[in-house]
Amino acid sequence: MYFAALLARTEDGWEASDTELDDVETLSDLTDLAQEASVDEDTVLVYIEQEDAWFGILRVDGEEDPRIYVSDASAAARSSYGEILLTDELLGREPGAEDEIAALEELVDLDGTEDGDPDEAARPASPAGTAADRQAHPPSHPDSDSDSDPDAGTDPDAVPAGPIGELGILADFGVSEKDLLTLRTDALTEIADALGAAEVLEAVR
Question: What is the pTM for the complete model shown?
Answer without folding.
Answer: 0.71
